[in-house]
Design a protein that fits this description.
With 260 residues, the chain is an alpha+beta fold. The protein is 27% helix and 30% strand. Strand 9 and strand 10 form a beta hairpin.
């Protein structure tokens, strides 16, 4: 079936929708139906995919009036964000509200926040609902999501991947750093959010392939029938160094090595 991907914010998560027989293309702005109400978004892709679940529909291609309403919602949401932060301070709640947004039809006002522990925000919701006369939803997010919303520069000096081009967070594991031979120093392998660098996943598959037939540091291997200890590895070159009775040999791997 034909599927279109829609994002509700710049570099945000992409959600699948049914084009509903509308003539739409990549880059078009559309109004879509979601569980939280109508939303304004941008078409990221249009493709044929096998989807096992039913999809919500694209209602229409956005008009100029829709765009103006969308801009007003953004402005009003920013004002609501400032007001919500004041309420949090007045109530003495241990939480930090990161952003706020209206659904396109203004049936909901949504806030994302971070907190170190569980927070009783019932009084906050009551105050916000009384002021803005709409349904209020508060969603606790993690530090990765905060980094994506706030933005910044990574250790490489470039814009954070999560706030630049990544639409979805992948699972990053410490094994990815080990596969690449990176020292497990938190200052080297952690990003601004304090979690493992997203970029560790970019070349993980290639490193894993290159490591397949390489020994590990400290392994005893046989070279021309003589045992030696592995003292160095160059993963991408598929080379390793072996100490054989004080003599250092560089070994290029084309076939699996003989580990003993």
């Amino acid at each position: 079936m034909q599927v279109c991907g829609v994002s509700f914010k710049e570099n945000g998560k992409v959600y699948n929708f049914c084009p509903n027989k509308l003539e739409i293309k990549k880059g078009d702005s559309v109004i879509v139906e979601t569980e939280k109400g109508e939303q304004y978004g941008k078409i990221i892709f249009v493709d044929n995919k096998e989807i096992s679940t039913s999809l919500k529909n694209v209602i229409r291609v956005a008009t100029k009036e829709d765009y103006n309403k969308y801009l007003k919602n953004l402005t009003d949401a920013q004002k609501a964000l400032l007001e919500a932060r004041k309420m949090v301070s007045n109530l003495g709640l241990e939480m930090q509200i990161i952003d706020g947004s209206y659904t396109f039809d203004r049936k909901q006002l949504l806030f994302n926040f971070i907190a170190d522990s569980r927070v009783d925000f019932r009084e906050l919701v009551k105050s916000l609902a009384g002021k803005y006369r709409t349904r209020i939803e508060l969603h606790q997010i993690g530090v990765r999501d905060k980094a994506k919303e706030v933005g910044g520069l990574g250790v490489c000096g470039r814009t954070l991947c999560c706030s630049g081009h990544l639409n979805n967070h992948e699972t990053i594991t410490i094994n990815m750093a080990k596969n690449q031979g990176i020292a497990l120093n938190p200052t080297k392998i952690n990003g601004c959010c304090g979690r493992l660098l997203c970029c560790l996943s970019y070349e993980d598959e290639e490193y894993a392939n290159c490591r397949k037939h390489l020994p590990n540091y400290g392994d005893m291997v046989k070279i021309d029938g003589v045992k030696g200890r592995v003292i160095g590895i160059n993963i991408l070159k598929k080379e390793y160094r072996v100490d054989i009775n004080g003599e250092i040999k560089e070994i290029k791997v084309d076939e699996p090595c003989s580990r003993k």
